[in-house]
Amino acid sequence: MYGYTPNKEDYLKRLHRIEGQVRGLQKMVEDDKYCIDILTQVSAATKALRSVALGLLEDHLGHCVAQATAEGGEVAAEKVREASEAITRLVKS
Amino acid sequence: MYGYTPNKEDYLKRLHRIEGQVRGLQKMVEDDKYCIDILTQVSAATKALRSVALGLLEDHLGHCVAQATAEGGEVAAEKVREASEAITRLVKS
Amino acid sequence: MYGYTPNKEDYLKRLHRIEGQVRGLQKMVEDDKYCIDILTQVSAATKALRSVALGLLEDHLGHCVAQATAEGGEVAAEKVREASEAITRLVKS
Amino acid sequence: MYGYTPNKEDYLKRLHRIEGQVRGLQKMVEDDKYCIDILTQVSAATKALRSVALGLLEDHLGHCVAQATAEGGEVAAEKVREASEAITRLVKS
User: Fold this and answer.
1) Left (φ > 0), alpha (ψ -120 to 50) or beta: where does C32 sit?
2) ipTM of the predicted structure?
3) Inter-chain CB proximity A23 and B25 less than 8 Å
4) What is the distance between the alpha carbons of residues A37 and D57, in angstroms, rounded to a whole number?
């Protein structure tokens, strides 16, 4: 059980949609579509991925804090450090 | 012929790899992998998409400028506006 | 007392440096410096601001989790929602 | 004369406003304001800096293309490479 478990089906649906977007991008390149139109779709796929990441992060933080309440400080500090590193990677991606 | 045409095969290869990354994400969610590990992979896929976008943009600008040299100001100004809007969408995605 | 309180002096020092960077940008514009060089400095200032934000966020999450351990679920859930919204704003900025 | 020269006063005004935002951030830290409120203001300042960068970039591209039309290919290709690197730095900042 993780923070995202209750929303698993929703994340899978969103990731399937993103897979479709990426396949759509391949088709656009194959069909020699106009570069700016491809870029618009790349931005849409990137936005959708970001949104999945922000959702996972929120679910994770909620789970983290719940665990911290149950298990106390040591574990919690490590979790916070780990989440912060994930946020940094996300912001820089 | 667009700016990206000479690099078409390379873009297709990269987009196939990104499709694989997104499918990998689905598998991670299905297999109940640890949230932070999923986030790391989302960041990697996002980074790969960004990199495709930056490549397409550079190819497009090169093409734009070449066209401007050939066709002159009116067309060029419109192209610059269009490219700037694409950059804004990219930065905000 | 907030999460960032122990690092207050460090944040002030970094914000003073960023203020200096922004004043440097004004001077570059006044002195008609080359656009690409100005853009490089804008990116540096943006990066420094992002880094302050990521630090404040990490300090805040640590503090949050500590509070959650002490005060329990209700307060904690609200804090997580609030932090997630701040992360979303940061990612989109 | 660069691409941004006609909008110089506007950029200076915006950079002065951003300097004010950064000084406001210092005051918030000094006055022990709530971390999430500081983060909201950091995001606002970051957004304002991004917007300056996007404006400078659009002005620069317009100028670039105009120069390319006048001076031809060699110079233009170098300018495009330079602009693309600036966009990459901006996206990653």
Assistant:
1) left
2) 0.92
3) no
4) 20
